[in-house]
Design brief:
With about 400 residues, this protein is mostly helical. About 55% of the residues lie in helices and about 5% in strands.
């Protein structure tokens, strides 16, 4: 007879916090419910969950309370995603998810906006490097095979890697074209989204690309889908299909209206998740969404996301969990971790910091803890990235 695997301390704690709802629980309340653990162990477990973004801490001192940030635990989500998509029940489109919630936690978004202490100017020199980074990073997330050096050779010198598929070179070149358009058209509008999608999916009338998944014929580029049904690979999610009603265009307009009043980082995360959730276009939805995420960041004078350092597995699993469970637990952390690394890439690291042993991965880990918990890093190298006055500036803009 099969035995049920006992819950871990973390899972038990998350069950209690989810049951407590928006009121949350105090450390004392948790300790009383988990009286087989010492108070110090409870505190350590809570600190770990807050650091990982699974639990949020509110208040201080005696008024401190802890809330679950998701109706699901990480273990719940991973168990669900381990099942074959064909064995998961179909999940129809839910229009309620086009609203502004769920979204990245407002406190975490505000802390990301503060990481401008060493940011460089987003000028023409920055754009030259960013074109390479984002064309490479976003293409990798699509399964492209070009390396950073392949991408640099193609974009700067027009040299294609003959050992790699033509479609991968075109995928990179299309990103360059769309990013150049983004750089001078930062307003979040349906027209700008359609133009970027058109550039991203252009097959340039090359016969060998007409049947390749990443590309579309002219009549299907730059327009929202109307009569095309979309079936996502390895997913139980069913995007909306309402032919002849104009619904997709109306829903994309709703996404634009919802994104506009949000703070820059909240707007970026919202666009990155909602455009592909709607499947607004016949193809290129995630690519368009990644570029769109940079519109509010650039308009808010923040560094853009290159997507070079996005964990592809976490990104894909995070999007799947959002599509099918409505949970942002995984995709929020993929976004935060990827954006942190883009910020470090886009910052001017002083020579003195480099000489003293600057470790980008270690700094990213400390900044991740800052974003998730609010704890100011003790490490001077990580602390140099934080501009405490930055959040107030963006608050005035919005």
């Amino acid at each position: 007879m099969a035995t049920t695997k006992p819950l871990t301390d973390f899972e038990r704690m998350l069950v209690l916090l989810r049951e407590a709802g928006p009121a949350g629980l105090t450390p004392n309340g948790l300790a009383l419910s988990m009286n087989d653990l010492s108070r110090s162990t409870v505190n350590r477990r809570l600190s770990d969950l807050v650091r990982d973004g699974v639990v949020k801490r509110l208040g201080a001192g005696r008024s401190t309370r802890y809330l679950s940030t998701s109706p699901f635990t990480l273990a719940d989500i991973e168990r669900y995603l381990e099942r074959d998509p064909l064995e998961r029940a179909p999940v129809p489109f839910d229009e309620a998810l086009l609203s502004g919630l769920p979204n990245i936690d407002a406190d975490k978004a505000r802390r990301l906006e503060q990481l401008t202490g060493l940011a460089v100017a987003t000028d023409q020199k920055f754009l030259s490097n960013f074109l390479i980074d984002m064309s490479w990073g976003s293409s990798l997330l699509e399964g492209g095979t070009y390396s950073d050096l392949d991408t640099q050779a193609l974009l700067q010198y027009g040299q294609r890697n003959p050992a790699k598929p033509v479609e991968d070179a075109v995928l990179v070149l299309n990103h360059k074209s769309a990013i150049e358009y983004l750089w001078t058209h930062r307003d979040i509008t349906v027209g700008n989204l359609c133009e970027m999608q058109s550039r991203l999916t252009d097959h340039h009338d090359l016969p060998q690309l007409r049947e390749i998944e990443h590309f579309l014929p002219p009549a299907r580029r730059g327009v929202t889908r109307e009569y095309e049904d979309v079936n996502l690979h390895r997913s139980a999610y069913l995007p909306p299909f309402r032919p002849g009603t104009g619904y997709i265009t109306q829903a994309l307009e709703l996404i634009v209206r919802t994104a506009l009043p949000l703070r820059p980082v909240e707007s970026a995360f919202y666009l990155m998740t909602r455009i592909p959730y709607l499947q607004a276009f016949a193809n290129g939805n995630k690519r368009t969404a990644r570029l769109a995420a940079n519109m509010p960041l650039l308009s808010g004078s923040l560094l853009p996301i290159s997507f070079v350092d996005f964990d592809r597995s976490l990104y894909l699993r995070g999007m799947a969990a959002f599509y099918e469970l409505g949970s942002i637990l995984l995709i929020e952390q993929a976004f935060i971790r990827g954006y942190l690394k883009s910020i470090i890439r886009g910052s001017r690291i002083p020579v003195a910091m480099r000489v003293s042993g600057f470790d980008a991965s270690a700094v990213a880990a400390r900044l991740l803890e800052f974003v998730n918990t609010g704890s100011i890093p003790s490490d001077v190298l990580a602390r140099a990235f934080i501009d405490p006055g930055r959040a107030a500036t963006n608050r005035l803009k919005h």
